[in-house]
Amino acid sequence: MRCVFVQFRCHPGQTYGVADAIYDREVVSELYSTSGEYDLMAKVYVPEDADVGHWLNEKLFDIPGISRTLTTMTFRAF
Predict the structure, then answer these.
(1) What DSSP letter does each residue of the chain carry, written as one string?
(2) What is the C-alpha to C-alpha distance for residues 7 and 68, in angstroms, rounded to an integer?
(3) Is residue 27, in this structure, part of any structural domain at all?
(4) pLDDT at 78
(5) Are 48 and 1 in contact (CB under 8 A)?
(6) What's the pTM value of the predicted model, to 2 decimals?
(7) Cα–Cα dist 28/37, whole Å
(8) Residues 38-55: pLDDT tens digits?
(9) Which domain holds residue 37?
(10) CA-CA distances (angstroms) from residue 12 to 2, 9, 17, 55, 57?
(11) The organism sits in which domain of life (predicted)?
(12) Distance (Å, rounded) from C-alpha 29 to C-alpha 74?
């Protein structure tokens, strides 16, 4: 599995609904509320054989209330 971090910016007043929808999909390892430019941050494990962009689009990015995302790829732990 490949670990990626995804940050979500939500439409005003939609953060809790987006967080509930993300949890309902059962594809994130951890989900946090954050301060700054983005409202939520998720730790996601993507299957090694999957294309990260397609997988995230199919599993998460169609949730209503998301206005923008930022995906950070990871490479190896130290």
Answers:
(1) -EEEEEEEEE-TT-HHHHHHHHHHHT-EEEEEE--SS-SEEEEEEE-TTS-HHHHHHHHTTT-TTEEEEEEEE-----
(2) 8
(3) yes
(4) 76
(5) yes
(6) 0.92
(7) 21
(8) 999 999 999 999 999 999
(9) 2-73
(10) 31, 9, 11, 26, 22
(11) Bacteria
(12) 15
What CATH number does residue 35 fall under? Answer: 3.30.70.920
pLDDT for position 77: 72
pLDDT at 10: 98
Give the torsion sign (CA, 23, 10, 67, 31): negative
**78 is a domain residue:** no
Whether residue 9 contacts residue 67, with contact meaning beta carbons closer than 8 Å, is answered with yes
Q: How many structural domains comprise the chain? A: 1
Residue 27 identity: V
pLDDT of residue 6: 98
Supply the pLDDT for residue 52. 96
Q: Does a structural domain hold residue 15?
A: yes
